[in-house]
Design a protein that fits this description.
The complex is a heterodimer of chains A (about 290) and B (about 400). Chain A has about 290 residues and is an all-alpha fold. Chain A is built from 11 helices and 2 strands; from the N terminus they run ααααββααααααα. Chain A has a two-stranded antiparallel ribbon with strand order 1-2. Chain A is globular. The relative contact order of chain A is 0.21. Chain B has about 400 residues and is α/β, with parallel strands linked by helices. In chain B, about 45% of the residues lie in helices and about 20% in strands. In chain B, helix 3 packs parallel to helix 4, helix 10 runs parallel beside helix 11 and helix 13 packs across helix 14. At the A-B interface, helix 1, helix 9 and helix 10 of A face helix 2, strand 7, helix 9, helix 10 and helix 11 of B.
Amino acid sequence: MDQLLQHLLNGLLLGATYSLLGIGLTLVFGLMNVVNFAHGEFYTLGAYAAFAALTLASVGFFLAIPLAIAAGALAGAVCERCLLRPLRGQSIDTVMLVMIGVWIAMQNAELLGWGGVAKSVPTPFPTQPVVLGPASVAPLRIFVFVVSGALILGAHLLLARTKLGRAMRATFQDRETAALMGVSIERIHTVTFAFGAGLAAAAGALLGPVFLLYPSMGDLASLKAFSVVILGGLGNFAGAALGGLVLGVAEELGAGYVSSGYRDAVGFLVIVAVLLLRPSGLFARAERVG
Amino acid sequence: MKRAIRALTIALGAVLAVSSGPVRAQEAVKIGVIQPLSGPVAASGNYIRMGAEIARDWINAKGGVLGRKVELLIEDNKSDPKEAATAAEKLIVRDKVPVIVGAWGSSMTLAAMPKLEEYGVPMVVETSSAATITKRGNPWIFRISPPSEMEALGLEKYLKDFGIKQADFLAVNTDWGRGAVGAFGDVLKRSGASVGAVEFMDQAATDMNAQITKVKAGTADTLFLTTSVEQITLVLKQAQEQRLARKVITTGGSSAPSQLIKQAGAAAEGTYHILFFLPWFPEAMPDGKLARAFVDEWAKRGHPFDGLTEGFRGHDGVLTAVEGVRIAGKPDPKAVREALWQVSVMGVNGPIKFEKDGPAGKESGQSKPSIFIVQVKDGKIALPAFAAKK
């Protein structure tokens, strides 16, 4: 029983990190229809940007995170403006190949710039765990959990309640009509991609200190982000948030009670089951066909 | 005038002939190196490259081998077994190297091995620990790193000092990790201790909380940890978060304790590490002078101190391969393989000399490396009292 509590707590914390990884991707993939293979690289960029701000520019920990988000959003905007805009109207496969190129180029640039040795990010949080009955948790992870929740909620509100969010949704539903309504289509494309990249960078800046920084850290992040998006349904924020939690808890319990060697397999089994039973995601609303 | 021009032409021709002759004879002896220079274990592979370059420069400063310079052809296996096989093929077919040093991880080495047999080129294995590498009957393999069995036997004499009654295992889910669990488990059972939980983690995994919770539920007193330094860092930090109270022993020699102290902080305190090089105490090595020279050269080149526990393998690997070429008298793969059996050199780790291992008639070479144990004490590396005695 004590063990189950700790497992559930672990799964919840892990799941929150997956949710955070998933929301940026669900925006770009679901709304813009860009299969963003470089998602994990914006995550890596955010982590290294926070590290650079902390150790090279020696700003505080809590300032380093927004700086990293800004760096990620800026890189996303540049990427959209220089690579995706010229490809507007091209098939999804062409865009996908370009994003694979961005992924490889960014990852190797990180390796060139920072070297292969893992780096750890210093944080102001104590390393002594907070004890909750039989379970315990590091203070840093509680902070990450709370900030992740706030970011997910904020992103959701921005998309659902603001004028900008409405313009985004309109643009990707029907660009001609949106343009006729006075929406600046090109600007919305850039802003949306930058938003997605900024969310990935936020995940990197928050999770970098929890784990370690190394140039290929984005690969695992991308894999989990895609899993979460598939689980939650494309473009669905609540779906991504809950999908992340489901994946985290499933992996945790799979490792705890089935076999730790098959930990990732358990996660993918859940995805296969969802694809079989609810192909448009666990939390997709019923859609009108035709 | 005509005659003068002809004389000049002949003189020029003679000069050209003389100057181009020695150039051909001076073509360098190529040594292939396969290491993970990118991917999750890129740090280790790059340290080994640095060590290999030191060996190359030292050998060349002393006149090279067979009167020729040594040149390293370094291929990246991207921490991926498939890429390791491709890299081996590239070095053999395109570059025609007479001998290879590689390929760090056991899974990578195992993937490259069929290519060695196919083309008949020997490989000096500098890091891999899985037993199967020398047991498969691949006569082109010459290993200078200890297989997990040898490492476990090296630990056996200290088991009483550790006072282990029951031990859990947490290992990376590769040939190396699974091999280590078997080898150390056998030695423990022989000494009367029991094996508790056996847990695995993916090579790229960053969250090991599930495994730690499971381990914590048991009653063992010791945790054997077999994986890369990055994952060891994460496991120690996450074990601290969950208040796991265990004696931790890392195996495989890749744990870079100095880096652990920096990155895991207090979570690394008290942990034990099995190593094959002691850069903190070079004089305690079998050849103290060589070890000291290597540590000094490493520092002179501005390489990070933490990399030394990996870097020496690159040095010893290249040293062994070049010695094989020297004894063979020509950079020919078959001749080098025969010659490797006669190699007897002093590496940074200690004496290197191959004995036969594996099925009769197709034996691989295996040397007997030196094995050491250190402990993190008060944020510093120390020799445990019992190890210093023996």
